[in-house]
């Protein structure tokens, strides 16, 4: 990760039955550090976690509409 989170956007990918700890915790920690975090789904429909009560989360973006992806 860059040492300076200003102007750095991070996209967390999510699909139905995601593991909550693998989506929510990293997104929360990145936001705490100052990164701009978006959640991208496979489509535009809400996604549901594996073990949480049925409370679907609507993604901020759709993965097929991303223009670039950099893995670090």
Overall number of domains:
1
| Fraction in helix | 10-25%
Q: What string gives the helices and strands in order?
A: EHEE
Unreliable segments (pLDDT under 50, ≥5 consecutive)?
none
Structural class: alpha/beta
Residue share in β-strands: 15-25%
The number of distinct β-strands equals: 3
Largest sheet: 3 strands, parallel
Number of helices: 1
What would you call the shape? flat
Separation of the first and last Cα atoms: 6 Å
Radius of gyration: 13 Å
- Record the strand order, biggest sheet: 1-2-3
Query: What's the pLDDT, averaged over the residues?
Result: 77
What's the SSE blueprint?
Elements: E1 9-14, H1 20-32, E2 36-41, E3 61-62
Parallel strand pairs: 1-2, 2-3
Describe this structure in words.
The protein has one domain. The chain has one helix at 20-32; strands at residues 9-14, 36-41, 61-62. The protein is built from one helix and three strands, in the order βαββ. The mean pLDDT is 77. The chain is α/β, with parallel strands linked by helices and 72 residues long. The chain is flat, with a radius of gyration of 13 Å. It has a three-stranded parallel beta sheet. Helix content is 18%, strand content 19%.
Labels describing this entry:
72 residues; alpha/beta; 3-stranded parallel β-sheet; 1 helix; 3 strands; 18% helix; 19% strand; flat
